[in-house]
Design goal:
By secondary structure, the protein is of the alpha/beta class. It has a domain at about 10-260: P-loop containing nucleotide triphosphate hydrolases (Rossmann fold, 3-Layer(aba) Sandwich), CATH 3.40.50.300. About 35% of the residues lie in helices and about 25% in strands. The strands form 4 sheets. It has a 6-stranded mixed sheet, sandwiched between helices. A hairpin with a 2-residue loop joins strand 14 and strand 15. The chain is globular and about 70 Å long. It starts with 7 loop residues before the first strand and ends in a 21-residue tail after the last helix.
Length: about 550
């Protein structure tokens, strides 16, 4: 019996970086094969070269600064590195397509979804407009987009994140290419939407016998869909093989370190709280946002929080979990009074801060601080990070010299060098910027820390380091923490108690172990059932510390 022929065959690919880069090649001597009706997951940390490899296949590199310098990329025997630009344009979309990580930036904001996909079809196929429209509507139905005719006339901003990603998948599949590259297509999605997109990709791949090259750093996703796995480190594949072998019996130290850093879905045993008296108590919190309206219309009202109530004892961590739009971040911002609640009480040590004016709130700003989801957006790009950490204490009367000394000691506490105080945000990695955000919050010596999705955009190993840092800080300073997340694996490892939010309301709450073992509300059951790779338990490796992956 003849061996199957790979539909995509990458042979000894090397991609050069500019001379001032931290290494010579973004991708070095990389070889990888993809067969029809197969899903190959390429995993590794940010900077490992995964996306550079994907863009090299499609000829989307920013040449000449980043350019292929060796190797071949054979698509059905044709070398994509040797074909002229006109031929490569014909291949894109028709023979090989890509689903990008962030559909909002990949889609044209001033064109309807239907027009953007129609442009792809019209470029490659000589079909009349009616047939193109019918093909698009049928594909929208196939990727389970509701009301295909409405979606066809909608603009990207009018769709949810999950719907935009489905539209991107429809655009990639509209010409029936034999190869699909998916570059982190589920990273920013909620667990339920993520499960739907993964199911959709697998269904479409099976129907069309498509070979899928799936780039991700989420090992839960790998366990859910991969046939084979290739692990990349600093531009090279250090291990590859069948998914079951790589996930359960990894051989390379880097792979073992990555898998060892994956949070387990089973909550660890937790000690009983030392106090039964609530330190932070939220009672009947309401917040609605209003938009539009006028003389003849009432406008739109969105209830982001409805009668939200929970308690946090001193030193405890409460996790607020749920999908995007459930109201988690709104509740967090109300608690810290970055947003004014419409009703309800927010008590800290028995004192209500929900209705205090700006001047009366100033002393409370020191006692409750926030770590934001996107550290790059929350840091001023034009000021050194040390000064940004020192700003809070200086505002409250600390001298500049003392505040800067404190900033340097805090940078050391969160694992950075004190001299990093003189550098700017863009000079740090994502994980380092998140450490700076934590240092800035700690500069005020808070009693309560509100962490809003602090690790959602980080690689698994960096995520593990930041979570360990938060746990160490919590133990050292006795912090009470409100932890916002949609990652249930993270919630299982970090939180003492869980409150599940849906459409602005808390539908279930209780100790983390009880919620995960015996969820009572159907929505909680759906969330837990949607966790990618939920049936896979990451093996533990005594010889693979998290630091080895960095």
């Amino acid at each position: 019996m003849a061996e199957p022929t790979p539909i995509l065959d990458i042979q000894g690919l090397s991609v050069a970086l500019p001379s001032n880069a931290d290494r010579k090649h973004a991708v070095g001597d990389l070889s990888l094969q993809l067969f029809p009706n197969e899903i190959v997951c390429v995993v590794g940390e940010s900077g490992s070269g995964k996306s550079v490899m994907a863009r090299a296949i499609l000829g989307l590199l920013p040449v000449p600064r980043v350019r292929p310098v060796a190797g071949r990329i054979l698509l059905e025997g044709e070398d994509l590195l040797a074909v002229p630009p006109a031929r490569l344009r014909a291949i894109r979309g028709q023979r090989i397509s890509m689903v990008f990580q962030e559909p909002m930036t990949a889609l044209n904001p001033v064109m309807t979804i239907g027009d953007q996909i129609d442009e792809v079809v019209a470029t490659h196929l000589p079909l009349p407009e009616r047939e193109r429209r019918q093909r698009i509507l049928e594909l929208f139905a196939a990727v389970k987009l509701p009301d295909p005719e409405r979606i066809r006339h909608a603009y990207p901003h009018q769709l949810s994140g999950g719907q935009r990603q489905r539209a991107m998948i429809a655009m990639a599949l509209v010409l029936g290419p034999p190869v699909l590259i998916a570059d982190e297509p589920t990273t920013a999605l909620d667990v339920t939407t993520q499960a739907q997109v993964l199911t959709l990709i697998k269904e479409m791949q099976g129907l069309r016998q498509t070979g899928v090259l799936f780039i991700t750093h989420d090992f839960g996703v790998v366990a859910e869909i991969a046939d084979r796995v290739a692990v990349m480190q600093r531009g090279r594949i250090v291990e590859q093989g069948p998914a079951a072998d790589v996930l359960n019996r990894p051989q390379h130290p880097y792979t073992r370190a990555l898998i060892g850093a994956v949070p387990k879905l089973e909550p660890p045993p937790r000690p009983a709280p030392s106090s039964k008296v609530p330190f932070l108590e939220v009672r009947g919190l309401d917040k609605a946002f209003r938009s539009g309206g006028g003389i003849f219309s009432r406008g739109r009202v969105v209830h982001a929080a409805r009668n939200v109530s929970f308690q946090l004892r001193r030193g405890e961590t409460l996790g607020l979990v749920g999908e995007s739009g459930s109201g988690k971040s709104t509740v967090a911002r109300c608690v810290i009074r970055l947003v004014d609640p419409d009703g309800g009480d927010i008590l800290i040590g028995g004192e209500d801060i929900a209705h205090l004016g700006r001047r009366a709130l100033r002393p409370w700003r020191q006692r409750i601080q926030m770590v934001f989801q996107d550290p790059f957006a929350s840091l001023n790009p034009r000021r050194p990070v040390g000064r940004q950490i020192a700003d809070g204490p200086m505002t409250h009367g600390v001298t500049a010299e003392a505040a800067m000394a404190r900033a340097r000691s805090l940078l050391e506490l969160v694992g950075l060098e004190p001299k990093a105080a003189d550098r700017y945000p863009h000079e740090f990695s994502g994980g380092q910027r998140q450490r700076i955000g934590i240092a800035r919050a700690l500069a005020m010596d808070p009693e309560i820390l509100v962490a809003d999705e602090p690790v959602s955009a980080l690689d698994v190993s960096v995520q593990a380091q930041v979570l360990e840092l938060l746990a160490d800080i919590r133990r050292r300073f006795g912090l009470t923490m409100l932890f916002i997340t949609h990652d249930l694996r993270v919630a299982a490892q970090v939180c003492d108690t869980i409150a599940v939010m849906r459409q602005g309301e808390i539908v279930e709450s209780g100790p983390t172990a009880e919620i995960f073992a015996r969820p009572s509300h159907p929505y909680t059951q759906t969330l837990l059932a949607s966790v990618p790779g939920r049936a896979w338990t990451p093996p533990a490796f005594a010889d693979a510390p998290v630091a080895a992956a960095v």
